[in-house]
Amino acid sequence: MTEDQLERIAAALERMAPAPLAAPDFDAAEAFVWHVDPDRLEPVAKVNRVPLPLLVGIDRTRDTLLANTEQFARGLAANNALLWGARGMGKSSLVKAVCAEVRARGQDLKLVELQREDLGSVARLLNLLRASDRRFVLFCDDLSFSHDDQHYKSLKAVLDGGIEGRPDNVLFYATSNRRHLMPRDMIENERSSAINPSEAVEEKVSLSDRFGLWLGFHPCSQDEYLEMIRGYCSAHGVEVEEEVLRAEAIEWQATRGARSGRVAWQFFTDLAGRKGVAI
């Protein structure tokens, strides 16, 4: 093959290669969403969040995550965090509210959301964030894995694995309904069919061990449920008699067969609509 042919092949390969990812304008927003094909960070004009004071019944968890996040934003040591537990109890809401609170206290902290399906691209995202002088909370909501899911291997590099490891300016927060990020029945099935049961699921289960903070969320009591609704009413100026509020709220949760922060917000949304109050 001649030198001219080699040069033409090299030129063709360069044209086929994707253009280098341009550094995003991190001044454009306080939060971003990572997309692939092509890789890009999309700014979020308005973050969907609940103010921190309205998150009721999780005081200790709130204070722990807030302190950890503020340490990180100030350039101090901080842990990756796994928020796990009951559905609808404010796990993702707490992450967004805490980041907003830290920003309100004067720290230039950015929130970057990463979808579980895009974990395979996390190395490219980290290289982009590593080049910035900002500090980022990388957030993955509803994180879990099935028995044939290989995305957890990419996540290990984010937490504390790999030669480069996690960039100093990136902290990883994840929410999950499962403490070990995989179904209990799958853990038991793999143990029962393995030659060495203790090693059968160690690789996947150990992933949750790499989070320095485990913050558990548990079902709320009826008093906490009602307190959430009262807080929403007060914040949005919805006036209703206490007896009526209590009776309707309890009936609403009975028809749903569940009691959580999400159910409280859904009831309040219905109540505000009936009262003619925009939220």
Provide keyphrases for this structure.
279 residues; seven-stranded mixed β-sheet; AAA+ ATPase domain-containing protein; 7 strands; alpha/beta; 2 domains; P-loop_NTPase; single chain
Structure description:
By secondary structure, the chain is an alpha/beta fold. The chain has 2 domains: 187 residues, Rossmann fold, CATH 3.40.50; 53 residues. The protein is 46% helix and 13% strand. A 7-stranded mixed beta sheet has the order 2-1-4-5-6-3-7. Helix 5 links the parallel strand 5 and strand 6. Helix 9 packs across helix 10. The longest helix is centred in the N-terminal third of the chain and has 15 residues. The chain is elongated. It starts with a helix and ends in a 5-residue tail after the last helix. The mean pLDDT is 84. It comes from Salipiger thiooxidans. This is AAA+ ATPase domain-containing protein. InterPro entries: AAA+_ATPase (IPR003593), DUF815 (IPR008533), P-loop_NTPase (IPR027417).
What structural class should be given to the helix and strand makeup? alpha/beta
User: Given this structure, which CATH class of the largest domain is correct?
Assistant: Alpha Beta
How are helices and strands ordered from N to C?
HEEHEHEHEHEHHHEHHH
What is the CATH architecture term of the largest domain? 3-Layer(aba) Sandwich
Question: What Rg do the Cα atoms give?
Answer: 23 Å
> How large a portion of the residues is in β-strands, by DSSP E?
5-15%
N-to-C span: 70 Å
Query: Main β-sheet, in a few words?
Result: 7 strands, mixed
Total count of strands:
7
**Count of discrete alpha- or pi-helical segments spanning 4 or more residues:** 11
Question: What fold name stands as the CATH topology of the largest domain?
Answer: Rossmann fold
pLDDT < 50 runs, ≥5 residues: none
Write down the overall geometry: elongated
State the helical fraction: 40-55%
Strand order across the largest sheet: 2-1-4-5-6-3-7
Compute the average pLDDT: 84
CATH superfamily membership of the largest domain, which one? P-loop containing nucleotide triphosphate hydrolases
Please indicate the count of domains. 2
